[in-house]
Each structure stands twice: as C-alpha cells, then as structure tokens.
Design goal:
Layout (H helix, E strand, L loop, with lengths): L9 H6 L8 H8 L3 E5 L6 H12 L11 H4 L8 E5 L10 H16 L10 H16 L3 E6 L3 H4 L7 H23 L4 E8 L16 E2 L14 H7 L1 H11 L3 H12 L14 H10 L5 H4 L4 H9 L10 E4 L1 H4 L9 H6 L4 E6 L4 E5 L3 H16 L5 H13 L3 H13 L11 H17 L5 E8 L2 E8 L3 E9 L3 H10 L12 E9 L6 E6 L1
Parallel strand pairs: 1-4, 1-5, 2-3, 3-4, 11-12
Antiparallel strand pairs: 6-8, 7-8, 9-10, 10-11, 12-13
Length: about 525
C-alpha cells in the first residue's frame, strides 16, 4: 500500500495509485452548494480537498473512476476555476500577499485568454475578471481559496511594529478582495475558503455575503480526517502489520491507535475522527510516534500562549457556549478559539440542556506534545524534560517518595529567580501551581489528575500507577502539616478506600522566598 505522505494533489494521488479514503460522496454533496467556509487544523487534508474540488469542477472524470462520485455525477460540466493557495506565500518579498493575488489573477486571464483591465486596482481587476470568465466560457466561475488566514496568522502577535503594519494591510487587502464575491455573486457557481481559524470578529468577511460555515455540524463533520469505520476497512491490512511489529493483538493495536490519534469531534453527534497525517505516517513507518505534533507547532500559537495571562489548564475539561471558541477575536487575552481551531482542544461532550460544549485534549499525542512544548517554553527545560521525567517515573514506580522530593526540590532550585512572579500572592500561587501542573503532565505513562473534583473539594494532584495512588496537596508559604490536614478534612482519599493499591498522602509547602519545596510530609 502506497501512503500519500506530503502529497496534496488529487491528480497525483490518483494517477500514482496512493491509498485514498473515498470522501467523494460528501464532496459531491458539498459541491451542490454555493459559498462555504471550512476551518480545520493543519495537516488535516484541506489542501487535498481543494485539489479534489478543482478536479471535479474542471470535469476531470477520469480521476474519479471507481469512486463514489461516479455513481452521483452524470453531467461532468466543466467550469472555469480560479485557485488561490496561500500556503506558498513568501515572507521575503515586499507585499507578498498583493503580489501573489495579482499573479493568480494574471494567470487566470492568460489561461482563458481574457483581456485584462488596464488598472493596478486589485479589487477592480478581480471584479471584472469573474463576469468576463462567465461570458467567455458560458459557465459560472468557481473560486477556491486554501489557507486564507495564513497571511494573518504569520504576522499575529509577533511584537514587531512592521509586522503589525503588514497585518493591518493584509487584513484590509483581503477584506477588499472578498468583497468582490458579493458584487459578482450572479457569476459564481461555487466558492470555498479553508483555513485554521475564522476571523469573523475582525470584519474579514463583512465585505460579502457571509459564507456557510460548515466547520461544525453533522453534515460535514467527517469530510476531513479518518473515521473509525474507514480506518478498520481501508487500513485493515496495515493494522495487522502494525500489530505484528508492536507484538500486540489487533484489538490492542486498535486501542493504541484510538488513544493516540483519535478523539477529534466536529459536531454535536460526537462522531470520532482520527488525525489523518499521523495515521498514514504510522502505517508507512510501522511505528507510533507524535507525527502531527512533531511536524511543526504553529509559531503564532506559541506566541499567543506566551502572551496570554492564563495557562492552558484554565481551558481544559470545561464547558463553553459555542460563541466562546468558534469566532476568533485577535486578542491574546482570549486565546481559547485559536487553541480549539488549531486542533489542540476538541469537543468531548455536548450538554443539550444548556447548549454548551465540553472541551479537552483530543488524544494522547496532542496532550503530551502540547504539555511538553509549554513546559519547555515556560520552565526553560532546555532538553532536560525527558531525563527528569524518567527519574520521577522510576521513583513513583518504586514508591520512593524521598527521591520524588529530591527531584522536585532540585528542579525548582535551578529555576532562575527572575522567572518567578513576585508582585502578588495570587501570581506567586499560580506560578507554583502551574509549574507543578506542567511537570506532572510530563509523566505520560501514569494517570495524572490535576485539580481533580471530589465530593468535598478539589485535590491539587492525584497520580495513579499500577501499584500506588499518590494524593498531593500543596501550600504556598504554609506548612506540610496544613496540607496533610486538608487531605484528611476534605476526604480526598475516600474514593480509594477499597482500592488494593498503596495510598500515599503527600503534603508539601512551597517557599516564595527560596522558590523551592520548604516542607514535605508523607502518610
């Protein structure tokens, strides 16, 4: 089986015999509409979707042989297609967005032998091209725009005044560009914009009729990505090969794939979607790794999280109304929509009564990758995360809490004084709490609960291993005895009363003066 790693051309994929998960029934359904917007995380197949639609609207019937589309389409009408792909914009050029838009318009004029308007006005040039194409070909025009938001995301929150100016210029340029669709609506057969996020709150789409946003909803929630049914049918043989390589049964291998790559949901019906990039890389290499995360974390997201006053745990495992995570407002004070739309959080539940969505990490790959990224950036681990984590894992496996204390104390003692916030008690508490949260989240082989809700309160941290349960409570500038007393008073261990594992209760106090553990007591 040939795996299309790095291939975004539908023609290349079909001509060269790469494996293809047939979504053409949904693509046919989509193509009957008019103007759409679709947001999905990076490397989720947006560019391949655009390429497939281009082939369909150009009447490339031969490329669809054997696919569901052949049972649905009878006419195969050829339409003039203008395709804008912002993935390839060069940041080295001056005004790269304007130059690229002009180059694509000129290319379309030459392809269809259209006499261009004698003007440097980009909007006017595009506005006159569309009706001329309609008149010339006798068919309305198809416009496909891939990664429309890249010219904005690349410049977002960089702190560079020149980037801020270019960002404002790009925003106005795109706004004027999109306004053409409203003026030429009668000449348009189909329009699709794809991207990672929706900048609706910064008036990106105010210049033309609002597109039908299909990013969330039952109709197209599985248009991109791989469903469980598709995984088990299309990739039946690769699953067996992977199971042999791992030395596991097929059922265990399926569970491992599910835990590591499944978990995305794009509608209320909670239809599971696997990350396609990680799945095809896993089968191609017969090795389960963090392929999607390792392929590059968007710099805009790192910048955004670095500028926000909140930490990531403020957003996970909580319920939100849809408007809080769908429409992006370019403000680092509220990064939740960007985190969600970039694929680092997903829908994990829907409360019909309150019309709210539960958001959390989609799977282990994303959770572990994001936590490691944030830990390295926030704690300045400089590559020490793996070795430090191994020491903690071994100590907890062996029930050696004195070694656990030594490792935490040593790590905190090496943290530069300048990193610790000193202004308010709340800031100091949040720093130590978030530091411990990130460090514990690095321990991926154990079940870790932070701020776990129990019947009488929230435990700071509970770590479950095969033989032990560790219940942690921390105090800033307090005493370990007070921390242990809180564990007892609030009954944090009650739910483990019948658990055969050894239960450890750990009370610890952090010193805001020394920046490390002052007291440590174990029961």
């Amino acid at each position: 089986m040939k795996y299309p790693i790095g291939i975004q051309s539908f023609e290349t994929l079909r001509r060269d015999g790469y494996v293809y998960v047939d979504k053409t029934d949904l693509i046919y359904k989509l193509a009957q509409g008019h103007v759409y917007f679709l947001a999905r995380p990076r490397r989720f197949g947006k560019s391949l979707l655009v390429s497939t639609l281009k082939a369909y609207f150009e009447g490339r019937r031969d490329l669809f042989e054997g696919l569901k589309m052949m049972e649905l389409e009878q006419e195969w009408t050829k339409y003039p297609v203008i395709n804008f792909d912002f993935n390839g914009l060069s940041s080295q050029e001056k005004n790269p967005l304007r130059n690229y838009l002009f180059s694509q318009i000129v290319a379309a004029e030459k392809k269809y032998d259209i006499t261009p308007e004698d003007t440097d006005d980009l909007g006017l040039r595009f506005r006159t091209l569309i009706p001329k194409l309609h008149e010339k070909t006798g068919s309305r025009v198809v416009v496909l725009i891939d990664e429309y938001d890249k010219p904005l995301l690349d410049l977002l929150d960089t702190g560079n005044p020149d980037d801020e100016k270019q960002l404002a210029s790009n925003r106005e340029l795109l706004k004027a560009f999109f306004s053409v669709f409203k003026a030429t609506d009668d000449h348009l057969r189909f329009v699709l914009l794809t991207g990672i996020t929706k900048f609706s709150q910064v008036s990106m789409f105010s210049g033309f009729n609002q597109p039908d946003d299909i990013s969330l909803g039952n109709r197209y929630d599985t248009l991109l990505g791989i469903t469980e049914e598709e995984l088990y049918t299309v990739f039946e043989e690769p699953i067996r090969e992977l199971a042999d390589e791992l030395g596991e049964s097929e059922e265990v291998t399926k569970q491992l794939l599910k835990q590591h790559y499944d978990g995305y949901h794009f509608s209320k019906r909670m239809k599971d979607v696997y990350n396609p990039f990680s799945i095809i890389n896993t089968f191609a290499k017969l090795d389960m790794r963090d392929y999607w995360f390792a392929s590059g974390t968007p710099t805009y997201l790192v910048r955004l999280l670095g500028n926000t006053p909140e930490d990531i745990m403020q957003y996970t495992g909580k319920n939100y109304p849809e408007q809080m995570f769908i429409d992006y407002k370019a403000d680092s004070a509220m990064p939740l929509p960007m985190i969600f739309q970039a694929g680092y959080l997903t829908i994990k539940g829907y409360d019909k009564e309150f019309n709210t969505y539960l958001l959390d990490y989609p799977n282990n790959e994303v959770k572990q990758g994001l936590i490691t990224l944030l830990a390295n950036d926030y704690l300045q681990l400089k590559g020490l995360a793996a070795s430090w984590t191994q020491k903690i894992v071994r100590a907890m496996r062996d029930g050696d809490l004195e070694q656990v204390r030594k490792e935490f104390t040593a790590f905190l003692a090496e943290t530069p004084y300048s990193m610790r916030p000193k202004k308010t008690q709340k800031q100091r508490e949040l720093y130590f709490h978030y530091t411990f949260y990130l460090l514990m989240r690095l321990i991926s082989c154990y079940t870790v609960y932070t701020e776990k809700q129990l019947s009488e309160g929230r435990a700071d941290c509970i770590v479950e291993t095969a033989k032990q349960v560790y219940i942690f409570e921390f105090k800033l500038d307090g005493t370990a005895a007070d921390a242990l007393q809180q564990i007892a008073d609030r009954g944090y261990a009650k739910s483990y009363a019948s658990d055969p594992r050894t239960i450890y209760k750990i009370g610890a106090s952090f010193s805001s003066k020394t920046g490390t553990i002052e007291e440590w007591s174990v029961e």
